[in-house]
Amino acid sequence: MSHPAGAGTCPVAHGSPADAVGPRIGLHTPEFAADPHGTYRQMRREYGGLVPIELAPGVPATLVIDYRTALRILHDPEHFPADPRGWEGNIPDDSPIKPMMQWYPNALRNSGVTHARYRQAYVASIDGIDLHALHSTVGKIATPLINTFCEAGSVDLVSQYAFPLVFEVLNQMVGCSAELGQRVATGMAALFDTVNAAWGMQTLSEALMELVQLRRAEPGDDVTSRLAHHSSALDDTEMLFNLISFYGAGLEPMQNLITNTLLLMLTDDRFGGDVLGGSLSTRDALDEVLFNDPPMANFCMSYPQQPTLIGNTWLPANQPVLISLSACNNDPAIRFGDHTGNRSHLAWSAGPHACPANSVAYLVAQDAIDQLLDALPDMRMTLRADEVAWRPGPFHRAMATLPVVFPKSPPLPVI
Predict the structure, then answer these.
(1) N or C: which end of the chain has fewer CB within 10 A?
(2) pLDDT at 3 over 50
């Protein structure tokens, strides 16, 4: 068995055995996307709570699937810092995973005093969002979208509803024009899919830098303006990468939260065969999805700067450690009985890097779902749940499409 540098001949197990137990489990494959929960169960049987994985071809990492171990790591930024600079130098520039994981001057990729400075500005920009006004914004965006397909009797809820709705909500929150926002969305999608990721980062960066310059000159009541004029005095590059983080935390995850919750509500009788007749609420469905199929399934990267012992397992220095939010939430050690209303899941992460926008995400997702189901209560899927295609990618839990049919309905009044 190989040992991490500096570990000597310590007889305990190595957390990421590259050779001893065969190939690593690839999180980037279509097979993993098709059945992640089966893979997590296999991981638990073969490896316990720390699993040797591959994020992209030739990029090793360790995946944490034990709930209590995840909490320990998330609350210990001293031993598990979020700064990847000791790792990224060994990763080829053309690796599809690098643009998503490399160091940037933002709250997500830093620790200590630097993280605190970025996070103060980031949290202040989010705390300034008026949730009452946001509720109205979602309704004003949802109604015209629904009107584009209500008379057709069929729709793909991913591409024709969830994505354009979340994209436009985020654009309005950051003060972004439709044209700039489209470029942002295109770049972010390429980044999350780890396909053409470098092109995605370039596209995203160019659009957001234009937004930064605009909002420095013409501030408004939006996230970008609050970041630009915060006492942390972020420069243009810092502004850019904190905005990328905001879009990254919003666009893909909120879209997936909406669609994964709709999938549950359309296929589970507890939420009613006619959707509105069930005994559980949209909020219950959201929480169940955040437990079982969180939109960011594997994330919260950290990079130990020296070999680190967890239990009887060594984690190598400068190799990514990811938290499987999905697998940890489904850890048999914490899953028993009915958990309706239980919000102890890790979908929002925990510790100093916990998501500061969960109230915003809950509101947008719940309003988007309720608007749709109020307008078209008799929707039904054209596929069985086991026929749904999931997009490959190590980080997200994302459907490719969610096709539904419903009785044709007249357009809704637009207020």
Answers:
(1) C
(2) no
Q: At what angle do helices 112-127 and 236-267 cross, to 10 degrees?
A: 60
Kindly give the interhelix angle for 236-267 and 163-174, rounded to the nearest 10 degrees. Answer: 150
Say what the alpha-carbon torsion angle 409, 411, 413, 414 is, to the nearest 10 degrees.
Answer: 140
39-96 confidence digits (pLDDT tens): 999 999 999 999 999 999 989 999 999 999 999 999 999 999 999 999 999 899 888 8
What are the residues whose beta carbons fall under 8 Å from the beta carbon of 151, sequence distance 6 or more? 408, 409, 410, 411
Q: Are 296 and 396 in contact (CB under 8 A)?
A: yes
The token pair that represents 135 in the structure block = 């509720």
For tokens 């469905």, what's the residue? 285
Count CB neighbours of 137 within 10 A: 19
Q: How many CB atoms lie within 10 A of CB 415?
A: 7
Tokens of 402: 């969610």
Tokens for 108, please give them: 């997500």
Contact 73, 349 (CB under 8 A): no
- Within its chain, how far is the Cα of 11 from the centroid? 37
| Contact call for residues 127 and 360 (beta carbons, < 8 A) | no
Give me the half-sphere count of Cα atoms (radius 13 Å) on the Cβ side of residue 117. Answer: 13
